[in-house]
Amino acid sequence: MKDICETLNGFARAELLRGPTPLEPLSRLSDDLGIDLWIKRDDMTGLGFGGNKIRQLEYYFGDALAKGADSVLITGAVQSNYVRSAAAAAAKLGLDAILQLEDRVKGMDAEYARSGNVFLGQLLGAEHMFYSEGEDENGADRALRQRAEELRQQGRTPYVIPLGLDNKPLGALGYVNAAREILDQGPAFDAIVVASGSGQTHGGLLTGLRMAGCDTPVYGICVRRDAEQQTARMRILSDKLAELLQLDAAIANSDIITWDGSLAPAYGRLGDNSRAALHMMAQKEGLFLDPVYTAKSFAGVTGLLQEGTITAGMRVLFVHTGGQPALFAYQDEVTQA
Length: 337
Ligand SMILES: *Cc1c(COP(=O)(O)O)cnc(C)c1O
What we know:
CATH architecture of the largest domain: 3-Layer(aba) Sandwich
Bound molecules: pyridoxal-5'-phosphate
Shape: globular
Distance between the termini: 49 Å
Number of domains: 2
Oligomer: single chain
Order of helices and strands: HEHEHEHEHHEHEHEHEHEHHEH
Mean pLDDT: 96
Number of strands: 10
Helix content: 40-55%
Strand content: 15-25%
Largest sheet: 6 strands, mixed
CATH class of the largest domain: Alpha Beta
CATH topology of the largest domain: Rossmann fold
Number of helices: 13
Strand order of the largest sheet: 1-2-10-7-8-9
């Protein structure tokens, strides 16, 4: 397949991340679990509390700046890391940010609506708008485009960062690049485990590895949809990404692996196995996972081990995608016995 750097150079990129994030062994957890466990610290991408969205936003903001945008609009859950990261990138690059918060997670307390990422979004000076439907991805995009149209009428140049699958997956380019970074940092892994939500992280990583000729299995841990739905989503996203990168061959169906054993009870709500995973990482390694994504993706590591997909002695890379600010909005959910 094509050379990754050369291919990525064809896309506009706004630099938000300088240099690689650390790739480290987790020795105490390795001892406990009987595997050789490593972590890719993409919680340390730096800007505005970091996380995986910084890599994705480099390409959206690159495109926005190339198009002369003066403002960006983005949508996500109330405690979205994506909208918080976009507000930080907008601040750094001198654009206005308009954040649309969707009512995706039911039954949460007052802290959820106020603390964590919501609070940070306010500090970053972003404008907030609300969308009352949490499951209507295309509707959320339409509402953003409507607001963008209003801004256009006022003589502004808005840029919409869309959520729906009928758009170019520019964000996945950041993880094509991260795949190259992981391969450069070594060592070789038997399995890579990562959260799979919109799928841009999972899809970009998988595509980047295969472009580089690396066939390590990538386990996408479902955080929003069940495995069947997420696999269908990843098929579409991988094809869109192959088209964007002008690859000769798409990702094979057998390469798209999803696992939903830690999805329950719902998006944005913690099950017992994910809560246990969050506590284990804190108490064994002094590292914080987040309640919405990485608690579930790390519960994927322990779950895949329990069911025998990951076996003793394997060298496994867990990709930490960030999200820790939401911990403060989820205190009851995280500490509940
Ligand atoms: C958004 C997010 C994910 C999921 O990434 P996608 O590219 O949307 O699949 C994982 N972890 C954290 C912390 C996130 O904020």
